[in-house]
Amino acid sequence: MKSAVETLNPTRVRLSIEVPFEELKDSLDAAYKKINQQVTVKGFRKGKIPARVIDQRFGRGAVLEEAVNDALPKFYTEAVNEGELNVLGQPEVDITELKDGELLAFTAEVDVRPEIEIPDYSGIEVTVDALEVTDEEVEKAVEQLRERFASTNPVERAAADGDVVTIDLQAKVDGEVLEDGVADGVSYTIGSGELLDGIDEAVTGLEAGGEATFTSQLKGGSAEGKDAEVTVKVTAVAARELPELDDDFAQMASEFDTLEELKADSRKRLETTKQYDQATQAQERVLEELLKLAEVPIPEKLLADEVQTRKHNLEHHQLGQMGLDLEKYLEIQGKTLEEFENETSEQAIKGIKTQFILDELVNKEKLNVNQEELTEHLMRRAASSGMSPDQFAQAVVEGGQVPMLVGEVARGKALAVVVEAAKVVDTNGEVVDLEDDEDTAEATETAEAATEDKADDKAEEKNEA
């Protein structure tokens, strides 16, 4: 076999391949054997029809077609390996010459990963939010905990903001009561905003037994999005009572003996959360700067496929779970279809650039992924997918997605290398030290968010099937 590679552009090549006919012998034998099992000829046992009879009865062309279809993938792969090409997607194959007994010639156009020169990233400098926890934030956290331990006591007075009311609801559209528009004994905290728009104003000032009617746009159900006439009746009013903020509360709500110890723990938890946010912010901004430094040609077909995949995942996974279609989603977002497609294309380009650059860094820095790192990543992805680790691992293995998971971890390690080399300062001008055991895991999340890999989606699809 002879092959030649022609570079059409930085992301696409054409392979020209010539195969001497004798190298098709195995495929021709397989073609005759396959046809033998599919047809019957009077006077011959099934599977024992001579080749000359098959040629006479069904035509030599049918045999050649079967043999060529069998042989093409093998010779294409040999040519790719010979040319040391990093191909993307499936090739477009064109048979240019087929002479029986002499020669098979064909071309294959395919996208390839572009050659990328990794820029000097040691000069990257980014600014992140300062790690500051205010007294007000601590007080708010403690107050939220206090809210969880609130008690309610029935009162004989008009309902006020913050009260818990028990209500009966009835919704009408065009004067007809909806089948799914009736609910009795609903518990609702006034001011929480958890039910319909306008309900707070309607029930405020009502005592038990009082009712009011208001108009509101339905947020779900059979008449979602339509304006409904809603009648609400208050059947009970209860006042919420918050526990005193003292040492007794600390002992009741936590493992601490004093309120001051509880506040100190709340401050520590807030600092930990902000440290994580700060590290994520640093990684995102360092990645943005890295992308600006590198020139990365984008394969057109790969981009089109990526855009289509992102749209499919949005429509069939995310929006489907929320009971929305694309049209309704765009209406809520206040975007036109053109704006959405432009944004999706921009995100896809960023994802492809991120993957290409970080993969090149993995090769350049000779980064490897060990079993412990892969297991930790798998556990985290399983948790985010809502599947058990065993279910997720089985689905990933059966779906052939293990290399994808390995790639995600490797790219995270590559990004961590760039972040470590960068200068990160906070808004106070202080240098931020991001050296931490969790850096790689956080960097992996950041790289995933940019590339939006599909391992979890495919694992979920496999599990559902």
Automatic annotation (TrEMBL):
It is found in: Cytoplasm. Coiled coil: none annotated. It comes from the Bacteria. Its EC number is 5.2.1.8. The keyword Protein biosynthesis does not apply. Residues 451-465 have a biased composition (Basic and acidic residues). It catalyses: [protein]-peptidylproline (omega=180) = [protein]-peptidylproline (omega=0). Its main location: cytoplasm. InterPro entries: PPIase_dom_sf, PPIase_FKBP_dom, Trig_fac, Trigger_fac_C, Trigger_fac_C_sf, Trigger_fac_ribosome-bd_bac, Trigger_fac_ribosome-bd_sf, Trigger_fact/SurA_dom_sf. The keyword tRNA processing does not apply. Residues 430-465 are annotated as: Disordered. It holds the Pfam family Trigger_N. Transmembrane segments: none annotated. One of its GO terms (molecular function) is peptidyl-prolyl cis-trans isomerase activity. Involved in protein export. Acts as a chaperone by maintaining the newly synthesized protein in an open conformation. Functions as a peptidyl-prolyl cis-trans isomerase. Consists of 3 domains; the N-terminus binds the ribosome, the middle domain has PPIase activity, while the C-terminus has intrinsic chaperone activity on its own. Belongs to the FKBP-type PPIase family. Tig subfamily. This is Trigger factor. It comes from Streptomyces rubiginosohelvolus.
